[in-house]
Write a structure and sequence with these properties.
It is built from 9 helices and 8 strands. By secondary structure, it is α/β, with parallel strands linked by helices. An 8-stranded parallel barrel has the order 1-2-3-4-5-6-7-8, surrounded by 7 helices. α6 links the parallel β6 and β7.
Length: about 230
């Protein structure tokens, strides 16, 4: 793979952080073709994805918890890295592997004080400055985007493009997950730009066969070892 970089010494071969590469499937409640998000996650797993985020932006903690618990129980059958968007307490309670936050959520430093190194902490960045600051503040990985225009964000959402992705992956050592408008036609370009992971929502959830679409991406790019 092109643009491989030397990662922070924390990234040992037996570290959960090493799972932060390859296909990163996001189970988003706003883009769910099934009645239950658990079913969507099962389709991702059946297709071979082992890095999954639960994202329920319009739901309360009481609504998120039972879904998160059901998904976490799937780890007994299949080993995968489970990230929960926003809710640190839920991530800890259900035994998730990590939490993903942004500028309007709990600060990285505050999360670290509460949970130590028990959770992977991901951070959404929308500029090179935010990406570098997230690394400096202690994030374990950065989600960077939108790389391309995307249906999941409004028309005013900034589009970063491949060149800025290349710039970010060249200056930070933590993994970078590219997100936003990624599909079969541009997937390889994102990999070549140095992304460690590719986060996808609509290209998976809006496919005719979610499991088969997941498998297509997995077969095209299997996670590399650090």
């Amino acid at each position: 793979m092109k643009n491989q970089k030397t990662l922070d010494p924390r990234f040992r071969g037996d570290d959960k952080l090493c799972s932060l590469n390859g296909l990163y499937a996001i189970a988003d409640s706003n883009w769910n073709p099934f009645g239950d998000l658990t079913t969507l996650v099962q389709k991702f797993l059946a297709g071979g994805c082992r890095l999954i985020q639960l994202r329920m932006k319009n739901s309360t903690a009481n609504g998120i918890f039972p879904i998160a618990k059901k998904i976490s129980l799937l780890k007994k059958e299949t080993n995968f890295t489970f990230i929960i968007n926003d809710h640190v307490d839920i991530a800890m309670e259900v035994g998730a592997d990590g939490v993903h936050v942004g500028e309007h959520d709990e600060k990285i430093s505050a999360i670290q004080k509460r949970v130590g190194n028990k959770l992977i902490i991901g951070y959404s960045s929308h500029s090179l400055k935010e990406g570098k600051e997230a690394e400096e503040n202690g994030a374990d990985y950065v989600a960077f985007g939108a790389i391309f225009p995307t249906k999941t964000k409004g028309p005013g959402h900034p589009v970063q493009g491949l060149e800025r992705l290349k710039q970010l992956t060249s200056v930070i050592k933590i993994p970078v997950a590219a997100i936003g408008g990624i599909n079969r036609t541009n997937f390889q370009n994102v990999i070549d730009a140095g992304a460690n992971a590719v986060a996808i929502i609509t290209a998976l959830t809006q496919a005719k066969d979610v499991e088969e679409e997941t498998r297509w991406f997995i077969n095209k790019w299997k996670p590399k070892s650090f």
